[in-house]
Amino acid sequence: MQATTIRVVLADDHAVVRKGIREFLEEDAAIRVVAEAGDGEEAIALVAREQPDVAVFDIQMPRMTGLDAARRVKREFPSTRVLMLTAYEDEPYILAAVQAGASGYLLKTACGEELIQAVHAVAGGESSLAPAITEKMVRRAAGSAADEEPSEPLTGREVEVLRLAAKGMGNKQIGSALGISDRTAQGHLANIYSKLHVSTRTEAVLHAVRAKWIEITE
């Protein structure tokens, strides 16, 4: 559980949408929206000024897209995690967001509770994708061929951790399922990232599915 207030910068080019998102987020006493932006360049300036825990970006914005803004944040402000909140559920956008370094991808059709959970997840160092997005991405990856091997093999326990991560489980849920602490689960994920040369849970899961280390079941 997040011990301190999660500070959020919110960027969307529609003021009414921003107002609604802000109201949803601030229903949770642990979340505070510290600044709002109407375009990508303003969003970057606010992230630089506020150094928030989470930046919530729309994809399509004037002056700089949310994807370009996410790349800038990952490169220049790595302590800030990016959550994409958008109407686009097309695979190219999702892939681009993951490659840009976004930690989460949520559709604007999500309810307030889902949005709050996603902000908590990415602030805590986890990934958060809408369930429909996760299924679409993982099934797409399952149809792709794997070209590269990890620098060293994954252990059996690491594969188990990835299997549970593919089901959308957070560190605590993985730990509970495997009889280990959430800190130990986080450590396994860190080792996996290092071996696979990735930086997010989503990238690790996609890599594992492409390599056929884990299978998708209903």
Strand-and-helix sequence, N→C?
EHEHEHEHEHEHHHHH
Count of helical regions: 10
Rg, Cα atoms, Å = 17 Å
Unreliable stretches (pLDDT < 50, length at least 5) are none
Beginning-to-end CA distance, first to last residue: 30 Å
The CATH superfamily title of the largest domain: Response regulator
Q: How many distinct folded domains?
A: 2
- Classify the helix fraction into a percent range: 40-55%
Percent of residues in beta strands? Answer: 5-15%
Strand order of the largest sheet: 2-1-3-4-5-6
Class inferred from helices and paired strands = alpha/beta
Biggest sheet record: 6 strands, parallel
Q: State the CATH class of the largest domain.
A: Alpha Beta
In brief, what are we looking at here?
The chain is an alpha/beta fold and 218 residues long.
How would you describe this structure in keywords?
single chain; alpha/beta; Rossmann fold; Arc Repressor Mutant, subunit A; 50% helix
